[in-house]
Amino acid sequence: MKRLLIASLITATLLPVGARAAEPTELTVMSFNIWGGGANDGKPVDETLAVIKAVDPDIIGLLESRPEPDPCDADNCVPTGPSVAKEIAGRLGYFYYDQAKQNPALWGGAILSRYPIVQPTANDLGVEIDVKGRKVFAYSLHLPDFPYQPYQLLGIDYGPAPKLTTADAAIAAAKAARGPAIDLFLQDLKAADRADAVFVFGDFNEPSHLDWTDAAVKAGRQPLAVAWPTSLRMTGEAGFLDLFRVAYPDPAAKPGMTWTTTSAPADPTDHHDRIDFTYGRASGLTVLKAGIVGEKAPEADIVVTPWPSDHRATMATVRF
User: Fold this and answer.
1) Which residue from 234, 213, 320, 319 is spatially nearest to 278, judged by alpha carbons?
2) Is the pLDDT of residue 314 over 80?
3) Where is the signal peptide (predicted)?
């Protein structure tokens, strides 16, 4: 949106996606909305680099790698200026791919990798990566942030969007807002049918059905239970695991808020939520650890200061 604790070993076996008999591969992956590499708040790229180095990921999905225009609002916010992905990758010694196309699933994104990037997918949403001879695909998505249904449900002003009062209305509005982007992603995902592993990173601008539960409502975390459609499609239709929720299945005990670092949790003009995700799909996928990276505890498991973004990052270490 534009505006670590170590878990017990958890193993989840999915349908095979081309895995071969070989030694297990271990990767650390990270999703980070970098807010123009800090440029939107006048911060140096060094601060963004410090966050990435604190995680030391093998593959990173960057969101908002280009600055926002001024003004940037719900009606008009087209990325402007050069991407900082090349500079960040160069200073890390990583390969990188800037997502240059314009479509409903992109907004100034990039993918960085410790391993060679082979080629992009047709719609620019992902890349194939050669991880020591294993075929891995990484996708980085930035879905539309308007209209934003949590604000609509809570009567928080964000552009000319009507107030919503029911879960069904929120689900319908979310499908209309982000359904075309997920349709496009599922087209690109076909390229990864025979991959050893697939990861999806992103600022989805929509919460998860795993977070807006009756238990979270009872704990005062959310206003009502909502079966958010985008996360349902990712975990159901596309067969991905929400890596953070595999490690921490209780949203009341471990909410994992990534939006936002710019307001207090009790601010009546905002609503804190988890809208940044790391998804994974592989045969015999094991989540070794997962966490939130941010400016302070207890919101963040890995704390980095100063903090350069209006989002917290999410990370996971997996084996497949």
Assistant:
1) 234
2) yes
3) 1-21
Residue owning tokens 């297990």 = 24
Cα–Cα distance for residue pair 74/2, rounded to 1 Å: 9
Task: Output the pTM of the full model.
Answer: 0.92
How far is it, in rounded angstroms, from Cα 237 to Cα 39?
37
Superfamily of domain 10-319: Endonuclease/exonuclease/phosphatase (3.60.10.10)
Cα dihedral 230→232→233→238 (10° resolution): 130
DSSP string computed for 54-122: HH--SEEEEE--SPPPSS--SS-----S--SHHHHHHHHT-EEEE----STT-SS-EEEESS-EEEE-T
Q: Specify which residues 127 forms β-bridges with.
A: 120, 138
Pairwise CA distance, residues 125 & 281, whole Å: 16
| Alpha-carbon gap, residue 45 to 271, rounded angstroms | 28
Query: DSSP 3-state assignment of 305?
Result: coil
**For tokens 């601008």, what's the residue?**
205
CA distance 50 to 319: 25
In the chain, domain spans: 10-319
- Give the DSSP H or E segment for 184: helix 167-189
Q: Kind of pairing, strands 59-63 and 26-33?
A: parallel
**68 burial type by CB count under 10 A (0-12 exposed, 13-18 middle, 19+ buried):** buried
Closest CA relative to residue 142, chosen from 189, 206, 88: 206
Tokens of 171: 């689900």
Tell me the average pLDDT of the chain: 92
* Phi (first) and psi of residue 246, to 5 degrees: -65, -45
| Contact between residue 164 and residue 153 where contact means Cβ atoms under 8 Å apart | yes
